[in-house]
Design brief:
- InterPro entries: COX7C/Cox8, COX7C/Cox8_sf.
- Its main location: mitochondrion.
- One of its GO terms (biological process) is mitochondrial electron transport, cytochrome c to oxygen.
- By secondary structure, the chain is mostly helical.
- It has two helices and no strands.
- The longest helix is centred in the C-terminal third of the chain and has 28 residues.
- The termini are far apart.
- About 0% of the residues are buried.
Length: about 70
């Protein structure tokens, strides 16, 4: 069903991803590829509270700002 160009592109993409995973993976250690440290659970909890809290409070703060504008 696929043309020769599509098959070659599909195979090239598969080879590129396979080589990338083989050469650049971090060994499968959980949390190794995260941009923050997960070894201190209290620090992680504080980060998650700030991240989720800011996302949930932003619409209310924006609405309050618009209502108080003169």
């Amino acid at each position: 069903m696929l043309g020769p160009l599509a098959r070659a592109s599909n195979k090239l993409g598969r080879n590129v991803m396979t080589n990338f995973i083989r050469n650049h993976s971090h060994g499968g250690v959980p949390g190794e590829n995260l941009p923050f440290d997960i070894s201190n659970r209290y620090k992680l909890t504080a980060y998650l509270m700030v991240y989720v809290g800011s996302g949930l409070s932003a619409p209310f703060l924006i609405c309050r700002h618009q209502l108080l504008k003169k």
